[in-house]
Amino acid sequence: MKIRKLLFVTKFEELGYDALKTLLSLRKSDLEHIVFLYVIERDQVAMRRGLGYQKNEAVRLKEAANIRFIDWAERLFEQGMEVGVYIQVGSLAAEVAKAVRKEEADLVVIGRSQKTAMEQFYSGSTVIELIRRLSVPVLVYKPVSESPFVTGTPFQRPLIATDWSPASLRAVDYLLELKPLIEEIRLVHMVDEGAIEGSSVMNAQKTRKDVKERLEEICGRFISAGIAARSHVYVGDPEEEIEKAAKECQATVVVLGSSSKNLWVERWVGSTPRAVAEKSAFPTLLIPPVME
Amino acid sequence: MAKKVLVVDDDPDVRLFNTTVLEENGYLPLEAENGEEGLRMIRAEKPDLVILDVLMPRQSGIRLYRELKTNAALKDLKVMILSGIGQKTFLRSQQALTEFGENPVPEPEFYIEKPVDADVLAATIKKAIG
Fold it and tell me: Does one domain contain both A36 and A160?
């Protein structure tokens, strides 16, 4: 699970060269190739009532993107990086999946979704659509200026929020590969309030102790690999508690296993990974389960 | 027999422009979409000249150029870079790779920055392979 090739999906407004620069710290690990992807959504250039396909507009958008990418590519080439570009008309999730397959990318970086709640309800969440189609991790990048709590490079102080799912345990293997970038890892588990409600003090303490033991076992793997790691137990709503933990630990990225809920349950009920990816002030790395 | 020229560029419009210029000037054009496909075609077709873009998916022209110039069997193949990426960047990039421990490569004999005029392209091809 090394990160050799990164797919950087941008519409320029939400994810610029400054974001890319912070990700170049991944070169200390294995990063050697960055591929840019700009997707012109079909509704920007096609199927407008009375207008049909607006080829000139598509060409204009493609050329504007190409000029930006040439500028970025020149800076990266000069540092000895390998760079590639895709500029496509289509749907974002489908084009990202295609590019990941063609390039065999190890990590996808996207900006925070710009869709409104209603748009998300009807068309689905971009993040969730992506994670469903991909077998590689997705980093939902949030700029430092938007997150007053985040300082440092994205993988400097990761916070892994584990629910013991296969995907969240896979996150452990993933971060072990990023050792040269990591200063310290914090591992947290959110205990459901219902699990301790009405139980005796002893039972509540036993729950905490059991969880802590499981967390310490995972911390042991990091410590054996030479990475500093500490564990914490939180109680309450996972979305709120993860945000709290990330602030308290001064995390630079929140790492979560992605949800295994089906599409409709996801759309109606939502999920913690989706909520954190879309609402948290912290960059969020979503690790998918192993695809069968 | 017409000389073979391989155009390696991910942009179909650029490939169409280049192959048209080549055909009109009596050459046999071949096409590849990226560096990897380009290398396969170079080995299979043994062209007289490669017109190479830099910024492409899968493998960039910087990498392909380096592979050609460090391969004993391919290093004498004529290469013309035709790209939106500036010549200075190309040279700095090759220098950076050499500094990281890779073998040094010579500067490309022919470098044209896009956009290119059809007459300039034809004249440069003629200068390269006659």
Answer: no
Instruction: Out of A94, A111, A128, pick the residue that ends a domain.
Output: A111
A133, part of any domain: no
Spatial separation of the C-alpha atoms in residues A211 and B128, rounded to whole Å? 71
Q: Does the residue A45 lie in any domain?
A: yes
Instruction: Assess contact for A11 and A38: CB atoms under 8 A.
Output: yes
**Cα–Cα distance measured from residue A167 to residue B113, given in angstroms and rounded to the nearest whole number:** 47
pLDDT digits (tens, 9 = 90+) for A12-56: 887 889 889 989 999 988 999 999 999 998 878 876 666 777 888
Of A66, A74, A84, the CB nearest to B57: A84
Bridge partners (DSSP) listed for residue A256:
A161, A286
pTM for this predicted structure: 0.90
Residue-wise burial string across A96-120, b where 16 or more C-beta atoms lie within 10 A, e elsewhere = bbebbeebebbbbbbbbbebeeeeb
Residues A150 and A105 in one domain: no
Domain ranges, ordered by start, for chain B: 4-129
Taking CA atoms, A24 is separated from A18, A29, A75, in Å, by 10, 10, 12
Q: How far apart are CA A1 and CA A198, in angstroms?
A: 43
| Per-residue pLDDT at A109 exceeds 80 | yes
Fold of the domain built from segment(s) B4-129: Rossmann fold (3.40.50)
Q: Are B55 and A102 an interchain contact pair (Cβ–Cβ within 8 Å)?
A: no
CB contact under 8 A, B84 and A66: yes
The whole domain housing A16 covers 1-111
Contacting residues of B for A77, CB less than 8 Å apart:
54, 60, 62, 85, 89-90, 92-93
**A98 and A45 within one domain:** yes
Which amino acid belongs to residue A132? R
CA A166 to chain CA mean position, Å: 17
Q: Cα–Cα distance between B30 and B10 in angstroms, integer?
A: 13
In sequence order, what are the residues at sequence separation of 6 or more whose Cβ sits closer than 8 angstroms to the Cβ of residue A66?
A85, A87, B84
Q: What is the ipTM of this complex?
A: 0.93
* A44 and A152 inside one domain: no
CA distances from A44 to A57, A91, A231 (A): 8, 11, 47
